[in-house]
Amino acid sequence: MYKVVVLDIDDTLLSDSGQISDETKDVIQQIIHRNKITVVLATGRMFVSAQKIAAELGVEAPIIAYQGALVKSQSDGRVLYERVVDPASVKSIIEYAESKHFHLHIYSKDVLYVKEENDKVRRYSDMHGAPYTVIPDFYELIESPVSKMLLFEEPETLDQAIRELLPTLKESCYLTKSKPFFLEILHREVNKGEALRMFLKDQQCSQSEVLAIGDSWNDKELFKAAGFTIAMGNAIEELKEAADYVTSTNNDDGVRKALEKFILNVGK
């Protein structure tokens, strides 16, 4: 019997238009209240952005934010787990981004910092419901606790960036994609799977009691920490191959259908 359900947000819970169907919301409420299951959101989003989705769903459990760099209680603000990028790596990434004229975001103390306001910033902010602060000199943030850094470029550009950054960052940072055009850089111990293990330890739950649903590169480690895994129909092929089951797409209520089948036993 599952005690914990872990859900990715973007391209999993949310449709391409950024919506969650009423039917999905109803099923999530059923498994929380009728089945007494803890629903956890695990996302690359900042905590304050993910918390808005949690409120929409009526989910009150701690949130796994920033790809697992932060696990934080919604009720009292207690931090269960946190890892930040070291200052030397922060400086190195800023230098790299500036040398390539790449668009860079820096997240510190649950604030999104950008160098200037432009179309990419506005598009990202609208997509994630994330407010931002303009700071022209990123070097002012080097000694701040940085949860995550994000490069926003074309997919092939980011693939090249990974090849160029890995030799110098592989000992200190974890690099992953949440979308083809988002490269996220975090502390080397950060991933959704490790954060889930810390949460389960705090909750005294076992891996076998966890069902997880996701769609992208950043969900691969999450799947390794869960007992039963479900890939979205729109997931990357690598995740589908690793999953125990593949549900419908995010535009066809894939999360709802999976929860009905494996938690509510609808259609069995």
Automatic annotation (TrEMBL):
At the top level, the lineage of the source is Bacteria
A Pfam family assignment: Hydrolase_3
Q: Which GO terms describe its molecular function?
A: hydrolase activity
Asked if Hydrolase is a keyword of the record, the answer is yes
Which segments does the entry list as coiled coil?
none
> Which key words tag this protein in UniProt?
Hydrolase
Q: What Gene3D superfamilies does its record include?
A: 3.30.1240.10, HAD superfamily/HAD-like (3.40.50.1000)
List the InterPro entries. Answer: Cof, HAD-like_sf, HAD-SF_hydro_IIB, HAD_sf
Q: Does the keyword Hydrolase apply?
A: yes
Family annotation (SUPFAM superfamilies): HAD-like
The protein in question is named Hydrolase
